[in-house]
Amino acid sequence: MTGSPPAARTPGLTALPPRTVEFRGTRGGQAALTWGQQGIWRSTQWLDDGDPYFNLPWTLPVTGAADLDAVLRAVGRLVERHETLRTAYVREGARPGTGTQAGAGEGTEAGAGAGTVQRVRREGRLTVGVYEAAAKPMTAAKALAAELAATGFDYAAELPVRCAVVCLRGRPRALALALSHLALDGWSLNMVAAEWPRLVAGEDLPVPEWQPLDQAAFERSDPPPGAQALRHWRSGLAAAPRSMFDFPEREPEEPRFVRYGMDSPAAAVAAEALAARHGVTTSSVLTVASAALLAAVTGHSTAALQLIVSNRHHLRTGAMAGPAAQDGLCVIDLGAGDPGSVDPGRGDPVAGTFAEALGPGHRRTMATYRNGHYDPSLVLAARDAEAWNRGADIDLDAFFNDVRQGGRWSGLPDVDPGDAAALAALRGRTRTFFVGAYSKVKAKIFFATGPAPSTCEFFVLVDTAFLPGRVAERMLGGLEELLVRAVSADVQLDRVAEVAGLDPVRRPAGWTRIGPDWVNLPETEALLRRVCAPGPAAVVVEPGDDGPPRLTGYLVARPGLDTPDAVHAAVMRAAAGRTGVLAPRHYVLCPAPPACPSGWPDCPRLMEGGGRVPSSAMTALGR
């Protein structure tokens, strides 16, 4: 297993003979994927082969009088120190020399990492490119790093790192890197950046005591970790909308996914002021603001976001290079109800304003970050169970990622947020820009900060099959407007769309809300009729049992569809992947149809029940 950077085409660089760095670590080995690796692996398998979406370009300066040999030794020590940089990801049973031949379920959420192992190579060689820059070596190195990262990695056969040294007048000045996200995450990049000058200087740094092989063993210990996180997920799944995007799809743009960015020092100053006033973090302010914008656009009073959780709370993982992040579920109540009312499930007052939502939203956000380390297979099983109980697939493709170091800004302008004129002047420095378009991304919307310390660097990516690309750009301006306005005035949650300049999604006639979910009643009834064909069927909205209205499905019993659980199983199979349908909460099986379509509730009944739990959830009538 070796690593070889492709020939560079970056202008202003002259290729010199490449060099080979030999490395020999303290150990090699094989283990199952860590939970953090599984999350990245699952996403890479969702992409086309060779897609570089999860590649990380990275540039490190070379300061002082270090010569090329010293830099190459530092590269070798870096690879030796961190096992993740000499790890292959291999599907067991793959054909020799390939990373193909997936097992059952591989590449799907249900088979996240199943049959795939991490193999740490103890020794090997890395080919390092060497280039002479005409001028500005760091600028040239950044362009070279992007070029190195433009090609996907062969995870089974290639080292997850490519690198090249950029020189100026023969003296090394920068290291250009392309790294697989399977090898390093943002936290790890900062670790490498801190180690790099010490390695170049020749320091003999101790080998880290905790590596992904150790993490994999810990995650499979007895008892396994993550029980509390699993309870957090189950609670969140029960409260979340089945999808934030339960409305009709639209004709997507080409490419389908677009991303816009914003630099706004005013938004950062406003977020700091709100955080201080309400005793929360700026990360929570940005999370609640993102949730409020998403809920306002999609017509929900509860928003579900998956937060990217770094999982670096423990000293061991804090010193480990390798992906440790997992998705955490954050469900935030944004109903503009009576200020004095209380959500019985959580005990928090129902928020009427954005400011009132910050405290409860902060508690949800912190709970999510505390409960982000879990066995993905158990969470997927919990999602499947909730989908079966809810009556529709659970779609959680809405994300928020705060990548700032320590979740804060360190160099904001010294502006009094209470000075309206000064804050308005600061807004004059706001810049929005188009980042890029992509053909395939596993998200319908993705909010993210950037690492800039002196401004609110913020990004929004949208799936244009659900939201127009211009909505991403408008959300950026809407985020700034929401935060700045909330500093000096109460912003009612039911006016967030208006304040932010957003147009809420309009659902056609026939859509109604059932609890936290929107459902297309005619489409749901048509699906039940197809399941029951050739027999007749109907779906009726009826009062729930001490809760929201429920959907009741009426049908004529026949062989194969003679119990509620059999009917529910058939409906769930037919509803897979549909955004507009919701399986009935209750099924009534009748011996014959009514004389007129509205007469189903008065029909004689053979059996009825929810169909979620076989037998015990049913009531037999007349048998």
UniProtKB/TrEMBL annotation:
InterPro entries: CAT-like_dom_sf, Condensation_dom. GO terms for molecular function: catalytic activity; phosphopantetheine binding. It comes from the Bacteria. One of its GO terms (biological process) is secondary metabolite biosynthetic process. Residues 94-117 are annotated as: Disordered. Residues 115-322 form the Condensation domain. One of its GO terms (cellular component) is cytoplasm. Gene3D superfamilies: Chloramphenicol acetyltransferase-like domain, Nonribosomal peptide synthetase, condensation domain. Residues 100-114 have a biased composition (Gly residues). This is Condensation domain-containing protein. It comes from Microbispora triticiradicis. The lineage of its organism: Bacteria, Bacillati, Actinomycetota, Actinomycetes, Streptosporangiales.
